[in-house]
Specification:
Length: 276
């Protein structure tokens, strides 16, 4: 697998990453709805604007519009931020075309193109930590170019280490799909120092509790939680996500049903939070 496994050196909580943006931190936000992504990216950027941390956004045009709107709702004018040198942006699709070579990203072109953007974004505030958001990897992933996506993740990690900036990625994945839990999500989480795979982890935990009890019964559910606690490194994943990952990876006959019921309960709990 390209790049070093970031989950072997997790530094702090998701909230700490969003608020403090540790240099060379490389986080991922898995989302189902664009509004979730916009909120996370806006929280990441605005936590730094007041302290003078510049931001760099490399996004698709529709996602950049959603982010601009979310920044506005929080009292930040994107145009004013750009004039102050606190916000720079680039189009993800256009940028990919500048450094992809055949089916893989060119190391030299990536350094020149993306490294150049990072240097420009930091130039006006050299003593502050740059907060960068990028979704070029997700563009490649959605195209089915998985080897290119993983190679690009490795280049991003190396660049963040070399330039000492904080990097947030976004992946549009359905965490209630068996294939995503079995194949995509473990690899995505593995490559990052911090991960948030659902908008509200506490509601996901409640949804998984209910799904397990309904499908396998309370006694078997308790045994599953014990097995997960013994086999999944503590703190590597939130409890509910660790359970879903563990179930999906073992080809258990009831894994799909648990995922579908968890999806249903999570949607209901989000629509009526007090019920959780």
């Amino acid at each position: 697998m390209p790049g070093s496994p970031k989950n072997t050196r997790r530094m702090s909580s998701w909230t700490d990453f969003i608020e403090r943006a540790p240099a060379a931190g490389h986080a991922v936000r898995v989302y189902g709805d664009v509004s979730e992504l916009a909120c996370s990216v806006a929280s990441f950027l605005t936590a730094g604007f007041g302290a003078g941390d510049p931001g760099l956004v490399i996004a698709t045009s529709d996602h950049r519009q959603a982010l601009t709107a979310e920044l506005g709702r929080r009292g930040w004018n994107a145009s004013a931020l750009e004039r102050k040198g606190l916000l720079a942006h680039a189009d993800a699709d256009e940028l990919l075309g500048r450094f992809m070579e055949a089916e893989l990203p060119s190391v030299e072109r990536f350094e020149r193109v993306v490294g150049g953007l990072v240097d420009q974004a930091r130039a006006k505030h050299p003593d502050r930590t740059l907060r960068a958001f990028g979704e070029m990897v997700d563009v490649l992933w959605r195209r089915g170019d998985r080897p290119a996506a993983l190679a690009l993740e490795a280049l991003w990690s190396d660049l963040a280490d070399a330039r000492s900036f904080a990097l947030l990625c976004g992946y549009g994945l359905d965490i209630f799909e068996l294939g995503v839990q079995r194949e995509a999500l473990p690899e995505v989480v593995h490559l990052h120092s911090h991960a948030r795979v659902v908008d509200d982890p506490s509601l996901l935990a409640a949804a998984v509790d209910r799904a397990l009890a309904e499908v396998v019964g309370p006694a078997r559910a308790a045994r599953i939680y014990l097995d997960v606690a013994e086999q999944v490194p503590q703190g590597s994943l939130p409890r509910a996500q660790a359970v879903l990952s563990w179930l999906s990876s073992r080809d258990l006959p009831y894994a799909h049903e648990i995922l579908e019921r968890a999806r249903m309960h999570y949607a209901r709990l989000r629509s009526t939070p007090a019920a959780a």
